[in-house]
Amino acid sequence: MTVGTTAARHRGRPTESGDDDLERLFDVLHLTPVVDRPVKELSQGRRQLVSVARALAGRPRVVLLDEPAAGLDSAESVWLGHRLRAIRDAGLTIVMVDHDMELVLEVCDRIVVLDLGRVIAIGTPDEIRNDPVVTSAYLGVAHARQELKA
């Protein structure tokens, strides 16, 4: 199944080559160059974006993404972050659960940090980045020392 067919079927209707909404979605997600390729031929990063495209094909106002950076290397995660910010900037609310703190800090406006199921911080990316409890739990002591030097 191709990328275009996968997203169109998630919309609940057959593929239509002139579907402007899907074309805009593919443009925002940078999937236009691969729209006619089978999903199984794509990199893991592009497969993650195809999953996002499926979720967005139904035109939700809010989308929940569970571990969108799972299996991605740091370069792919940065690339995914750029695409997710473009989606967010287009007016869609993204609720994201992810362990990739850099991705979360770059994409999210408001963050709730859990440690072993307990809320340890709530705030903006800057507040979370500078929270000593979060730094200790997720970013490590070395990161905290670097922040103090800066």
Features:
single chain, 150 residues, alpha+beta, Rossmann fold, 2 domains, 4 strands, elongated, ABC_transporter-like_ATP-bd, EC 3.6.3.-, nucleotide-binding, Lipopolysaccharide export system ATP-binding protein LptB, ATP binding
Per-chain topology:
Blueprint: H1 3-11, H2 20-28, H3 44-56, E1 62-66, H4 74-89, E2 93-97, H5 101-107, E3 111-115, E4 118-123, H6 125-129, H7 132-139, H8 141-149
Q: What is this entry, summarized?
A:
This protein is of the alpha+beta class and 150 residues long. The protein has helices spanning 3-11, 20-28, 44-56, 74-89, 101-107, 125-129, 132-139, 141-149, and strands spanning 62-66, 93-97, 111-115, 118-123. It has 2 domains: 3-108, P-loop containing nucleotide triphosphate hydrolases (Rossmann fold); 109-150, no CATH class.
